[in-house]
From TrEMBL:
GO terms for molecular function: methyltransferase activity. It comes from the Eukaryota. This is Methyltransferase like 21e. GO terms for biological process: methylation. It comes from Oryzias melastigma.
Amino acid sequence: MSRRSQPSYFSSETWEGYNFSDLEIRIKESTDVYGAVLWPSAMVLCHFLEVNQDKFNLADKNVIELGAGTGLVTIVSSLLGAKVTSTDLPDVLGNLQYNVMRNTKGRCKYTPLVTELIWGQDLDQRFPRASHCFDYILAADVVYSHPYLDELMNTFDYLCQENTQILWAMRFRLDPENSFVERFQKRFHSEELYDLPSLNIKLFRAWRRDKWTNDS
């Protein structure tokens, strides 16, 4: 996946361009909101999904992305054939919806669903387990400068069912965020898939502690 930038000199918006296989992806950012900025961890996760399709095949899989932000991970997952539920806070949904629809319409087997998700709130009503069984939970840089890490942990725990795998890319910055990883690893089995020291980014796979024992 290659990248190019096109800043706007008349607003706080920036366009990012990517090539995924032979398709162009154009992402609109807004520097006014954390969630509407494309962070490096999202690119790392997208690259991983693209080059590891043999082991992590998303075709026809049920996928949910937490903190989807600008939508790049959702878009790439959809282009790889996944049935994606793309979630974030209400203030970034407009930009997220725009990017996702612009880059997936007519290109994907399944139309991604963009919807609001406030971590830890009304999970059993919004995503009842009987009808919302996800094969993968995807997340990139979801803990950066975020005050609701307990709620994020509870959301991971609720959505991660017996056969669910979590793929989570994180850029290590601050101690409170780093300690979240330690707590996460106490709650879930995990393995490190990628380590990029130059960017302080690691990519983890995780699953419930009471399942997937043959892989642990």
